[in-house]
Amino acid sequence: MNIPKPSVQIRDLDLHFGEVKVLQGLNLDVGEGEFLVLLGSSGCGKSTLLNCIAGLLDITDGQIFIQGENVTWKEPSERGIGMVFQSYALYPQMTVEGNLSFGLKNARVAKDEIKRRVGRAAEVLQIEPLLKRKPGALSGGQRQRVAIGRALVRDVDVFLFDEPLSNLDAKLRTDLRVELKRLHQQLKNTMIYVTHDQVEAMTLADRIAIMKGGKIMQLGTPDEIYNRPQNRYVADFIGSPSMNFLEGNLENAEFSTGDLKLPMAGYNFVNGGASNGETTIGIRPEHVVTGELLGRASVQTNVKVNLVEPMGSDTLVYADLAGDQIRIRMDGHSQVRTGDTLPIGIDAQRASLFDKKSETRL
User: Fold this and answer.
1) Does residue 1 carry a pLDDT above 70?
2) Which parts of the chain are coiled coil (predicted)?
């Protein structure tokens, strides 16, 4: 992916709380108009990094640039950002219109300009009928729209979102996720979005930065992250259900574990050639094929079904393969039952190989 001119740049950023290293040597460029998602499990440093960009936390070392200006030690109000938090943080005694205009009034923006910005934000977020209501008369989704609108009226180039949908129920999250994507396509502002929800990350992002222990484990497009994970952590974190892993040995471009042998001659090795030795192979549940697709697989074998989970559109099957339990995603109409012997096929070219010791992609 070609990255446009950087809108936000982070250089050698460290953040320590006493002896605890929370962020370590981070470097990141966020392109103009890009939707970047910071993704990771709780405690990985994603919200902390966002707060550093916003100026809510003082960093230990490094520099932060926004629109080419060094803002490392500037106040949040001087950074040209709009931020949306996990909590709505609306003033309950004010109407929606009052909440949207409050910050602008404090900044002594002209009345006509305030009216224009509030009207534009309300139109974009489809909350015009709600302007005279107070937050107590709004649903969770409507309150979050108002919180987004409060950032929107600032008319800035960079928006920061800290898990804005996590307090909503599943359907509202889906609806607002669509609205956020539409909003970005309409405004074309730079947006940096923190979440632990991989579905949000995959559907919203131009690029995803997966974090662990204060470091970025991989930065890439959703397609790159999903289909070519750079290490086992990323491969395991992305995907629901997660990737199947089998331990084995790679020799002469063939992976073997127990009686299972997978030819890897056409595999796209990172270094251009196979490296023999102890290896882990990762296979996504949807890349284990059954039924009429068996003929396309590199290798076919039989497995015994241990458990079946009907999930509506899909059926998730647990089975034994080469001494390990694997998950197989099948069509929701599949009639497979616990105890069945199931013929399966594996397409080795869609698998991922990792060095067993370093856990990096081969």
Assistant:
1) no
2) none
Exposure string over 195-224, b if 16+ CB within 10 A, otherwise e: bbbbebbbebbbbbbbbbebebbbbbebeb
Rounded to 5 degrees, what are φ and ψ at 361? -70, 135
Percent of all residues in the chain with a pLDDT value above 90, rounded to a whole number: 52
Domain carrying residue 136: 6-236
Query: Do the Cβ atoms of 359 and 231 come closer than 8 Å?
Result: yes
State both tokens at 5: 């001119």
CA 124 – CA 183 distance, rounded (Å) = 7
Say what the pTM is.
Answer: 0.90
Tell me, what CATH number does 76's domain have? 3.40.50.300
Here the CATH number for the domain that contains residue 341 is: 2.40.50.140
pLDDT per position as a tens digit, 235-282: 999 998 899 999 999 988 889 988 888 888 777 888 766 678 899 999
In angstroms, the CA 121 to CA 128 distance is: 9
Domain count across the chain: 2
Residue type (1 letter), 272: G
pLDDT (average), residues 66-84: 92
Sequence-distant (≥ 6) Cβ neighbours of residue 289 within 8 angstroms: 296, 297, 344, 345, 346, 347
